[in-house]
Amino acid sequence: VTLSLRPEKLRLWRDEPDEDRLHNAVPGRIEDVIYLGNHTKYWVRVQGHRIAVLEPHNRFLLDETPPRWKQDVWVSWHADDAFMLEVYRESDGQLAEPPPERVGDGS
User: Fold this and answer.
1) Hey, which of 38, 57, 78, 97 has its CA 20 to 30 A from 88?
2) Residue 85: predicted pLDDT
C-alpha cells in the first residue's frame, strides 16, 4: 500500500503542530528550496523518503521568515487529502518511485 499526497496539500511548520485527529504530521528536513514565482517548492527528507511540498507565498506573513535549506521542519496534511493506493502489478511500483536526487539523474 502506498500513501499518495498532492504537494500543494502539504504544509510546513517550524515547530511540531498541535495534535489534531483530522491532521497528520511527520518530522523532516529541508534538502532543497526552489523559488517558482508565485510559490516555492521544497524538497523535504521524511523518514528516508524525499517529498515535494509546494507553499504559496501568501502563506508567509511579512514578519515570518520562510523555511530554509537544511532546516528541521514538520510536514502536515489533512486526513481527507491522503489517498491509499494498492499496488496491483510489479510494474505499478515504477509509478511511485521517488524523484531523482539531482537534476539530470534518471532516465
Assistant:
1) 78
2) 77
47-105 confidence digits (pLDDT tens): 988 999 998 876 555 556 788 899 999 999 999 998 887 766 667 666 666 667 776 65
Cell of 96: 511511485
Those residues with Cβ within 8 angstroms of residue 84's Cβ, 6 or more apart along the chain or in another chain: 1, 2, 3, 4
CB 81 within 8 A of CB 24: no
d(CA 23, CA 17): 9
Task: Report the Cα–Cα distance between both ends of the chain, in Å, rounded.
Answer: 25
Question: Where does residue 53 rank: exposed (0-12), middle (13-18), buried (19+ CB within 10 A)?
Answer: buried
Given a contact cutoff of 8 angstroms between Cβ atoms, the answer to whether 43 and 32 are in contact is: yes
Nearest-CA neighbor of 11 among 33, 32, 26, 31?
26
Number of neighbouring beta carbons within 10 Å of residue 100? 11
Cα(90)–Cα(81) distance, rounded to whole angstroms?
A: 26
